[in-house]
Design a protein that fits this description.
- The longest helix is centred in the middle third of the chain and has 23 residues.
- The chain contains nine helices and twelve strands.
- The C terminus is likely disordered.
- It has two domains: about 110 residues, Rossmann fold (3-Layer(aba) Sandwich); about 200 residues, no CATH class.
- By secondary structure, the chain is an alpha/beta fold.
């Protein structure tokens, strides 16, 4: 956290003067906003105040089609993230409930609370429905390769330890930033043609990445709209490990199976069907109770059950954040 203090007062009324030194004072509702992180964009769009965004940083990574359109039409400008003296950087835990914080800056607390409650309720409904699916529980591991730091030599996890740990995993979801293809993943993890058959997830053709929606430049929507809509992330996970659920024909948003040759969907300004003033809707499957019986084919191989446990037996459905659902992270040093 930044340990900064903010005082918000209603526009047109006197601002309080009895405030601690260093307090940053803002009149609300805020009329003009600049964002330094793409993860902030969807919160503002969900509240219907996307038109208040006057400036963005890292234009090439903005996945929102309507914000891309605003940039292309010069309604929104690109700024340097280093010029941040007039901005507020929000570092709260990334999940749907953060929309409540954003809403206070626009006098939209009621809307923010409703959005947060809707995401939370749908997430919990999906969680309960998934827990009621019968079958075995395959092991799913979220993994990531982090290159050795030039400043750190005491990397505790070696490539050998990592490969032993994942050998009997049924499925992996890889979050390595620059590994878009199956051959890239095999290369950075040190999996060769000779050793590939010894890994269960390779035999299952179950190697997924969270880069299913990208910009032309490779910016990931995973770091933008997936941050707020963690119920949609959970629906993606359910569809990944239990094909045919949460409904027949469900199309995953972010998780793509590189082992089966699935390609990313590219988000462009042409995909904007409304405007920046149109509230962004939750793309998640709307859960109403237990899932219907599985029917229809799926592009993802079934393993006979839904994952409820990670390596250590942790009940992942007790974890609210989309960033830690089913998450068993291994940061490795290849050749270590």
């Amino acid at each position: 956290m930044t340990n900064e203090a903010f005082a918000l007062y209603q526009y047109g009324t006197p601002a309080s003067t009895n405030l601690p030194n260093g307090t940053k004072v803002f009149a609300v509702p805020v009329a003009k906003v600049a964002t330094l992180q793409t993860s902030s964009n969807t919160y503002l769009e969900a509240l219907g105040v996307g038109a208040n965004i006057m400036a963005l940083s890292e234009e090439q990574y903005v996945s929102s089609p309507c914000l891309q359109k605003g940039l292309a039409n010069n309604f929104i400008i690109q700024i340097s993230s280093s010029n941040a003296t007039f901005m507020v950087q929000i570092l709260a835990a990334p999940n749907g409930s953060r929309v409540e914080f954003y809403s206070t800056w626009f006098n939209l607390e009621d809307s923010g609370n409703k959005i947060s409650a809707s995401i939370n309720d749908n997430y919990n409904c999906l969680r309960r429905a998934a827990a009621n699916i019968n079958g075995n529980k395959p092991v799913v591991s979220w993994v990531s390769y982090s290159a050795p730091s030039e400043y750190t030599n005491n990397i505790p996890s070696t490539s050998k330890d990592f490969l032993v740990a994942i050998q009997n995993v049924d499925m992996i979801i890889d979050e390595t930033y620059l590994a878009p293809t199956l051959s890239d993943i095999h290369s950075i993890f040190g999996i060769t043609n000779a050793t590939a058959p010894t890994y269960r997830f390779v035999a299952n053709q179950a190697i997924l990445r969270e880069d299913g929606i990208q910009t032309v430049a490779g910016g990931r929507d995973w770091f933008e709209s997936a941050v707020i809509f963690d119920d949609a992330v959970l629906a993606d996970v359910i569809a990944t490990v239990w094909p045919g659920y949460p409904t027949a024909g469900y199309q995953r948003s972010w998780l793509r199976n590189v082992a089966k040759g699935e390609t990313p969907k590219i988000s462009t300004a042409a995909n904007c069907t409304g405007s920046v003033s149109t509230p962004r809707t939750d793309p998640a499957f709307a859960c109403s109770g237990n899932f219907a019986a599985k029917s229809g084919a799926s592009s993802v191989q079934a393993f006979g059950g839904f994952v409820v446990y990670g390596f250590d037996g942790l009940d992942i459905f007790a974890l609210r954040s989309a960033w830690i659902v089913l998450c068993v992270m291994y940061y490795i040093s290849i050749g270590g």
